[in-house]
Design brief:
With about 375 residues, this protein is mainly alpha-helical. About 65% of the residues lie in helices and about 0% in strands. The protein folds into three domains: about 1-45, Arc Repressor Mutant, subunit A, CATH 1.10.10.60; about 60-185 and about 265-380, no CATH class; about 185-265, Orthogonal Bundle (Tetracycline Repressor, domain 2), CATH 1.10.357.
Length: about 375
């Protein structure tokens, strides 16, 4: 297919994705929008999914090249020497805004950035002395908060220029401290849970356990039915609908429950800036140790196709951080996006490459990234 026609096909699909999900788009519609024949379209693409995969691979390659080219001439990236008025990641997003506007709010799109940053596109040219564990943590950490910063830009400050967002990011990163991960309890958050009848609690717990059991058996969220859940829990179908409108509501409830458990580990009695590094390491290690018992572990399994987990986790954690009284001069919503994504990046690493490392080691290594005195590097 000529390059011009290929570009038209990709642009046509992105335009249609602005209107509806890919499941409801046909190859006929793509061909008509791109002004190419269906026969020509099928010569080069098996189906609509192969087109979007092609688009995504083009974007991964493009972003990786943009980052490498931008930093290949540097020995190090000093926080106190802002060498660029706009970060190359944000320049690339701005240049390809139609793609990112369509894709960013899709459930598993954080993996796009993980795949890009696995290539060491920044650390290859930049001479930064990181241990193997630090490099692994860095990939998840950087991918997730880049994803969160772009989400913030497109959803919260869409009119801002890449230069303006870059300036906000430089300002935020230059202030970062390890104690940002922690906060004080948000008043009223747990009050409604205490008021629920115990019989209702038992029924919901049984349905949630059944849902996890069925997910573990089928290993495919889309294949789970309400009948599967009610049979496994030995609870009537009508009773299920007394508590949840559908399996999506059940899933969302369980994600929120897991997020509440995560937040419990990050909640402290004192002011965060009075929290010592040793106390922070202990609290973070406790979270990593308890992670395997949380339902969220199953939902984060990328092979099982559970939708919207990362976006829902970001919302819950952001709410916690937005309620904190901070002395941060940068935009507070950007701070909430940034810190929430760091936590999720760490959890994803723990469930992936980090399984073999003791929680105490991971907690200590991760907190080092939040000490700008150790790494004079802009980690974006």
């Amino acid at each position: 297919m000529p390059e011009s026609a290929e570009a038209q096909v990709k642009e046509a699909l992105l335009a249609l994705l602005k209107e509806r999900d890919i499941q409801h788009i046909t190859m006929k519609e793509i061909a008509e929008k791109a002004k190419v024949s269906r026969g020509s379209l099928y010569l080069y693409y098996e189906d609509k999914f192969s087109i979007i995969e092609d688009v995504i691979e083009d974007m991964k390659e493009g972003l990786g090249k943009a980052l490498f080219d931008a930093f290949s001439h540097m020995d190090t990236l000093h926080l106190n020497k802002k060498r660029q008025t706009v970060h190359p990641t944000l320049s690339f997003v701005h240049e390809h805004r139609s793609f990112f506007s369509v894709m960013m709010n899709r459930g598993h799109f954080h993996r796009f950035f993980r795949d890009v940053f696995q290539q060491d596109v920044l650390l290859t040219p930049v001479h930064v002395n990181l241990t193997p564990i630090e490099r692994e943590i860095y990939g998840h950490y950087r991918a997730l908060y880049t994803y969160a910063i772009i989400l913030y830009w497109l959803n919260e400050d869409a009119a801002a220029t890449p230069e303006a967002i870059s300036q906000k990011v430089w300002e935020l990163v230059s202030q970062k401290r390890f104690y940002w991960l922690f906060g004080q309890a948000v008043p009223g958050e747990r009050e409604k849970d205490k008021q629920i009848d115990r019989r209702v609690v038992r029924t919901r717990e049984a349905l949630q356990k059944a849902f996890l059991d069925v997910l573990a058996e089928k290993k495919d969220y889309a294949a789970i039915t309400i009948s599967d859940i009610t049979r496994k829990s030995n609870i009537r179908r009508a009773t299920f609908y007394d508590h949840y409108a559908n399996k999506e509501e059940l899933l969302q409830t369980m994600i929120q429950r897991s997020c509440a458990e995560i937040i419990d580990h990050l909640t402290i009695a004192s002011s965060p800036n009075e929290f010592s590094l040793k106390e922070a390491e202990k609290a973070l290690a406790s979270l990593l140790s308890g992670l395997s018992k949380m339902p969220i572990v199953h939902f984060l399994n990328r092979e099982w196709g559970v939708p919207h987990v990362i976006p829902d986790m970001l919302k819950a954690l952001e709410s916690f951080y937005l309620h904190q009284q901070t002395d941060i001069h940068a935009e507070k919503k950007l701070y909430a996006h940034y810190v929430s994504s760091m936590i999720i990046g760490l959890l994803l690493y723990r469930l992936d490459e980090g399984k073999t490392h003791p929680p105490e080691v991971l907690a200590r290594e991760f907190l080092q990234f939040l000490d700008v005195k150790k790494y004079k590097v802009v980690l974006l």
